[in-house]
Design brief:
This is Glyoxalase superfamily protein. By secondary structure, the chain is of the alpha/beta class. It is about 20% helix and about 40% strand.
């Protein structure tokens, strides 16, 4: 039944939920290095935060015993992967996979945030 009716459901924006050990340090990284702004926070002390930049949105959740995965937790498309890569290098961000042009039509790289969460960056090539 779902396959016959799912076409009628429109999906909107998605926002990855990312666990972090220190939500304030994560906030500082995403704001200072990547230019996000805080749109919402919840809890006392703060345990949840929404960050936005352009069409991208990230939901941070405080989890003091968080252990980063070895897989990417988020893929973000950007307009200029080379520029973002240079910014990450200048800021001392840990690069997991260097900037390359992929055979599937993207310029891409992977970095780790301060909690070790792997973020995959892609720029669609013409």
């Amino acid at each position: 039944m779902a396959s016959s009716t799912i076409a009628a459901v429109t999906f909107g924006r998605t926002a990855p939920g990312i666990c972090v050990r220190d939500i304030h340090a994560a906030h500082d990284f995403y704001v200072r290095v990547l230019g996000f702004t805080k749109a919402f926070e919840n809890g006392d002390p703060v345990g949840f935060m929404v960050l936005k930049k352009d069409q991208a949105e990230i939901h941070l959740s405080q989890k003091p015993d968080h252990k980063a995965s070895t897989v990417n937790v988020m893929h973000m498309f950007v307009s200029d992967a080379s520029m973002l890569y240079a910014i990450c290098e200048a800021e001392g961000v840990r690069i997991i996979k260097g900037l390359t042009e992929k055979d599937y039509g993207q310029r891409a790289f992977v970095f780790a945030d301060p909690d070790g969460n792997r973020i995959d960056i892609g720029e669609r090539l013409p």
